[in-house]
Design brief:
mainly beta; Elongation Factor Tu (Ef-tu), domain 3
Length: about 170
Amino acid sequence: MDSDALKIGQLGKPHGVRGEINFTFTTDVWDRAEVDYLMITVDGIMVPFFLEEYRFRGEHSALLKFLDLDSIEAVQEFCGAEVYVEQQQIDGVALWSDSDDVPWQYFKGFRIVDETLGELGEIADVDESTENVLFDVKTSDGMRLIPAVEAFVKDIDHEARLIHMQLPEGLLEL
């Protein structure tokens, strides 16, 4: 994908008959920056779609209505498509309005760097099914679960998409 674009979420199912579609987002930067269009992946290519209107349904979801897409059929093909915003549209705007309210899924795609072991890999998924949230990290040895524990996190570089951690000795050997 375009390195000058930031993935901000994914489209879900159509809603109603006017061409609205569900959108689950990992950052509300697109709303706060008042962007005119979002980039949607269509056959592996990012295509701009202009927003006609939108309304929030929850902390991390909204209904989008794109210009000239006025029916269920018109938006059906975009179900599951990834949504991006061009970096130039959001320059100078923080990725999330409240840093304490960042959803765990936001960290998908971040790389984890341990202070002792170096780069461990990329977060492929986040497991929130138990009380203890786990990063499912794709490493050179396969997949590893790493606890998403605040005490282990030393720094988060949102721009570089890096999480610097200090993991307890022996944790990765379990």
